[in-house]
């Protein structure tokens, strides 16, 4: 295998050695400044909230963060947002539209909340060009299988737009986290393109089951085996075999900028699974490029 990067500065050389045009990271956050300030304040109090420190590694202004991502090799940059209360999602969607319009390489994203208005603002966001959605079950504190969301899920299913959904029960459990509610949504809307954030941490096996059962379900690598919550050494041989069989379903995610370590730790951790360079090519570029509508690499090409 090609030696993984030891620092962010080495990532472009590593990506080039793999023969990839760049990184297709599906899990990157940009937020309105007032919302971002509150998010960072929450992480500043991580000892109380998570029981451990969580220093924001990329605590810079928006322009600096965009430059860092471009330097790392992102050709298309998600700007994922998520609401924590009713009446917030439509406003965030307006912000997302304007932020994407102001930057040529930012992906037009959108979000939703379990509220009747989602039946209107989700189709409106799609009509205005949204290509990627984010849903956070624990922060939002709502059930993803709430029937009020059926019109929104139906619109997203028809549009075949990917939805990065944080539904796992770590780093904090919620009243509605876990795979069960996601499975019920998929029973009603089996064509949804759910991208399970954090590989479904800690319910890895159950979310992998959903990825195997539904063609549109993918797993994003956000914080997985980065050394913060888990390391490659903790992944069992049987789950490594599952990851090999799910090669076309595992998508690079980072949670940039809200991570407590360098971006390279995520990439080197994935390489540390020793699943092969072709697996890394699929995860770092091919699968995300397919979901985001980017130019895809021809399989087998270097």
TrEMBL record:
<dbReference type="InterPro" id="IPR032465">
    <property type="entry name" value="ACMSD"/>
</dbReference>
<keyword id="KW-0456">Lyase</keyword>
<dbReference type="InterPro" id="IPR032466">
    <property type="entry name" value="Metal_Hydrolase"/>
</dbReference>
<dbReference type="Pfam" id="PF04909">
    <property type="entry name" value="Amidohydro_2"/>
</dbReference>
<feature type="domain" description="Amidohydrolase-related">
    <location>
        <begin position="25"/>
        <end position="294"/>
    </location>
</feature>
<dbReference type="GO" id="GO:0019748">
    <property type="term" value="P:secondary metabolic process"/>
</dbReference>
<keyword id="KW-0378">Hydrolase</keyword>
<dbReference type="GO" id="GO:0005737">
    <property type="term" value="C:cytoplasm"/>
</dbReference>
<dbReference type="InterPro" id="IPR006680">
    <property type="entry name" value="Amidohydro-rel"/>
</dbReference>
<dbReference type="GO" id="GO:0016787">
    <property type="term" value="F:hydrolase activity"/>
</dbReference>
<protein>
    <submittedName>
        <fullName>Amidohydrolase</fullName>
    </submittedName>
</protein>
<dbReference type="GO" id="GO:0016831">
    <property type="term" value="F:carboxy-lyase activity"/>
</dbReference>
């Amino acid at each position: 295998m090609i030696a993984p990067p030891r620092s962010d500065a080495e990532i472009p050389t590593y990506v080039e050695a793999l023969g990839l045009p760049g990184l297709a990271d599906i899990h990157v956050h940009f937020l309105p400044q007032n919302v971002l300030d509150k998010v960072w304040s929450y992480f500043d109090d991580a000892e109380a909230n998570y029981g451990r420190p969580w220093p924001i590694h990329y605590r810079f202004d928006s322009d600096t963060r965009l430059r860092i991502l471009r330097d790392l090799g992102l050709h298309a940059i998600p700007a994922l947002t998520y609401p924590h209360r009713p009446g917030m999602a439509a406003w965030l969607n307006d912000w997302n539209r304007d932020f994407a319009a102001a930057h040529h390489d930012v992906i037009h994203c959108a979000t939703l909340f379990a509220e009747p208005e989602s039946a209107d603002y989700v189709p409106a966001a799609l009509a205005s060009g949204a290509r990627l959605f984010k849903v956070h079950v624990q922060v939002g504190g709502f059930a993803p299988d709430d029937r009020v969301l059926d019109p929104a899920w139906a619109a997203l299913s028809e549009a075949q737009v990917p939805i990065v959904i944080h539904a796992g029960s770590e780093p904090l459990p919620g009243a509605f986290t876990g795979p069960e509610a996601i499975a019920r949504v998929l029973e009603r809307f089996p064509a949804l393109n759910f991208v399970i954030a954090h590989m479904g941490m800690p319910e890895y096996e159950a979310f992998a089951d959903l990825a195997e059962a539904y063609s549109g379900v993918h797993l994003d690598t956000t914080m997985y085996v980065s050394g913060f919550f888990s390391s490659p050494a903790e992944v069992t041989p049987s789950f490594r075999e599952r990851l090999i069989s799910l090669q076309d379903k595992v998508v690079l995610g980072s949670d940039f900028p809200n991570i407590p370590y360098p971006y390279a730790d995520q990439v080197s951790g994935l390489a540390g699974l020793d699943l092969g360079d072709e697996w890394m090519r699929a995860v770092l570029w091919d699968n995300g490029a397919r979901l985001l509508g980017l130019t895809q690499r021809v399989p087998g090409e270097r």
